[in-house]
Design brief:
Elements lengths: L1 H30 L26 E7 L4 E8 L6 E5 L14 H5 L3 E6 L15 H15 L5 E6 L1 H12 L6 E5 L7 H9 L10 H22 L6 H5 L1 H7 L4 H11 L12 E7 L7 H10 L3 E6 L6 H4 L1 H13 L16 E5 L5 E12 L4 E14 L2 E19 L2 E16 L2 E10 L5 E5 L1 E11 L4 E10 L2 E2 H5 L2
Parallel strand pairs: 3-4, 3-5, 5-6, 6-7, 7-8, 9-10, 10-11, 11-12, 12-13, 13-14, 13-15, 14-16
Antiparallel strand pairs: 1-2, 2-4, 15-18, 16-17
Helix pairs in contact: 3-4, 5-6
Length: about 475
């Protein structure tokens, strides 16, 4: 008890000095052009509320004018000029998720960590906890608490998705963005399919068994894709904020998770995003690594760092490795990805009933017939013909300008991939995440019964560029004609 009393007493003695120093910094920042604005203090923080926090940091609970709601703010490294703002994800711990990170950052940066409204020590007003509304809160925090140097925004899970949205809606406000295991980016149908997918790549299973499992998973995915284009009862809450607030408003995690699912991240303008570092746990079962590769595809200045044996919260499971990567990310430079070499290959790749299941490198033409286990990695092929096959591809380029690829009764899953020319689909299904079509419109034609699940997908023609995401069903029509309805 005596030790606890001494710690509390020391922290109280330290607050006036830190607060006065911070006010001096805030006055300097406002002198550079920010309007004078007094921060309104909310209900004082109790010793019990701060029991899990180190006493050497500064803590406030203030009112956010845009939503008239209390906001818990932690600050460390007050002597530094560059500011790093930390945004947490779903869960009850809120800013406590960053306690293993803050000491490493505070040695070089001014650190601001918050509890988003509705979470942790920021309980208060009930509103739609959406990326749009949270972005307003973050903008206020940056204006009020930034120091004169560069501002970097670091978000984890839902916080990463919010940070991504903020960077798009408020261009030029931050110098660098760091995304950690961002959740909610993929189309909801693609995400549900990920949760239900088996691991079919185990080498100890006979090929015949893996083919059977692939067929079972294919059937399950087909059912999920049908639900993705059907009636969604959660959209009732999207159209009626009063109904939402009355039924789930005070259930913070549900409110925020539902609002996150409703945000279509595929339509954001990624070309205007700041330099972005992406840190991911390879074993993340909450936000699949596929999301990171899709983001890297659409972010022009981005770099991906993968922690091979980490899950969804790498800063807690692998603190030393994570902190090292984060500090290097904040100090490093990111360049555009190099262009692919011209494909002049004359190789023909063939697969019949999975007699050849892995392709990489350059090909002139790949032909698959009744192959259920095929993977393309770093593949570049000028032509592709699929019949009764299931193929998964990543970091690839398929097709060539002016030519048509024929996909018949097949399933194609593509991530971080360029598609050049045109796809002609007949009774096939496609799941694209981080995919760009290049060619003359129309780039995708359905002959009969085609389903598409699109995340972070772009159509780039000589006359226009279209960003799209969602689940679609095509009959005898092109993708572009359906989008024009």
């Amino acid at each position: 008890m005596a030790k606890w009393f001494v710690l509390v007493l020391l922290s109280l003695l330290m607050l006036p000095v830190q607060a006065n120093w911070l006010n001096d910094i805030n006055r300097k920042v406002r002198a550079l052009g920010e309007p004078e604005a007094e921060i309104q203090v909310a209900k004082p923080l109790s010793a019990l509320e701060l029991a899990d926090y180190p006493p050497q940091y500064q803590y406030q609970r203030v009112m956010v004018p845009s939503h008239d709601t209390p906001l818990f703010v932690l600050q460390a490294g007050l002597e530094h000029q560059d500011t790093v703002v930390l945004v947490h994800g779903l869960g009850d711990l809120a800013s406590k998720d960053w306690l293993t990170v803050i000491p490493a950052l505070a040695a070089q940066y001014h650190v601001v960590a918050i509890d988003l409204p509705g979470f942790g020590l920021s309980q208060g007003a009930v509103f739609t906890y959406s990326p749009k509304e949270y972005a307003k809160v973050i903008d206020w925090v940056i204006k009020q608490y930034r120091h004169p140097g560069q501002v970097s925004l670091v978000g984890h899970s839902m916080g990463a998705a919010i940070s991504l949205y903020y960077a798009n809606q408020y261009p030029g406000r931050i110098g660098q963005l760091v995304l950690v295991d961002a959740a909610g980016i993929l189309d909801r149908t693609a995400y549900i399919k990920h949760l239900s997918t088996r691991d079919n790549d185990k080498a100890d299973l006979p090929q015949g068994v893996r083919r059977v499992i692939a067929r079972v998973d294919n059937f399950a995915d087909k059912m999920l894709e049908k639900t993705g284009t059907g009636f969604d009862p959660t959209r009732l809450f999207s159209n009626d904020s009063s109904l939402r607030n009355m039924t789930i408003g005070e259930q913070t995690n549900m409110n925020a998770a539902l609002a996150l699912m409703e945000q279509n991240f595929s339509v954001l303008n990624y070309q205007q995003m700041p330099t972005t570092q992406i840190i991911w746990g390879a074993q993340d079962t909450v936000a699949p690594l596929r999301t990171a590769h899709a983001l890297q595809h659409v972010l022009p200045l981005s770099q991906l760092h993968v922690i091979s044996d980490a899950g969804h919260v790498p800063m807690k499971s692998h603190p030393q490795r994570f902190n090292s990567l984060l500090l290097a990310s904040l100090q490093g430079l990111t360049t555009a990805r190099p262009a692919r070499m011209t494909n002049v290959s004359q190789r023909i790749g063939r697969c019949f009933q999975d007699d050849h299941t892995h392709f990489s490198g350059q090909y002139q033409h790949i032909i698959l017939n009744d192959c259920k286990l095929v993977r393309f990695d770093n593949l570049d092929t000028q032509q592709l013909t699929l019949t009764d096959s299931i193929v998964s591809m990543s970091k690839s380029r398929i097709g060539t300008a002016g030519h048509t690829m024929v996909i018949t009764r097949s399933v194609m899953t593509a991530t971080d991939t360029d598609i050049v020319g045109r796809i002609n689909s007949n009774r096939s299904r496609f799941d694209f995440a981080g995919v760009s079509f290049y060619g003359e419109s129309p780039v995708f034609i359905s002959q009969a019964s085609t389903r598409l699940v699109l995340s972070l997908t772009r159509i780039i023609t000589p006359t226009q560029s279209t960003r799209l995401g969602g689940s679609y069903v095509l009959a005898e029509q092109s993708l572009e004609s359906m989008l024009s309805y």
